Amino acid sequence: MTRWLCALLLAATTLLSGCGYNDFQRLDEASKAAWSEVLNQYQRRADLVPNIVASVKGEANFEQETLTRVVEARAKATSIQVTPETLNNPEAFNKFQQAQGELSSALSRLMVVAERYPQLQANQGFRDLRVTLEGTENRITVARNRYIQTVEDYNVLARSFPTNLTAKVFSYAPKPNFSVQNEAEISKPPVVDFNKK
After folding, report:
1. pLDDT 10s digits, 21-37
2. What is the 8-class DSSP label of residue 116?
3. Angle of helix 64-79 relative to helix 90-114, nearest 10 degrees?
């Protein structure tokens, strides 16, 4: 009888120490903190857009359509309300990610078009804003990578045995992560034709 009681006590202790509840709390908080940094960097970029647009508007012949796309993409990206629940809602997360991707694309197009305007390239204010934007894009990449890692750690815990049992009991569902929007396109190998002239 004593042997069974000791075995039961040992099993209960092992199960409780391996349940992962505290790990879920730690990783959930880490993913929220990493997400906050991603949002912080996206906001930094959104705050730069009006200054960039204002400096480009000074160029008389600049393509209005490109500026309009940037302004509209910024408006769409900043209009999406992000709450802590966004992290646990794949649909809302994807919608937010898509809006940020559209803003990135519009800004990239703006910078490419700006190359055609030597007077704009000579403008020190525009050059400073461009450098700041490039730095912000790098910060976004770093923040997203940190978030991706914390979500990966959380999701591994949520799917591994025996902590997956704790996840089910306390409703710790796996979190959505960033994905590539044009995955099908970028997975195709590039066509290289050396015979073209």
Report:
1. 889 999 999 999 999 99
2. T
3. 160
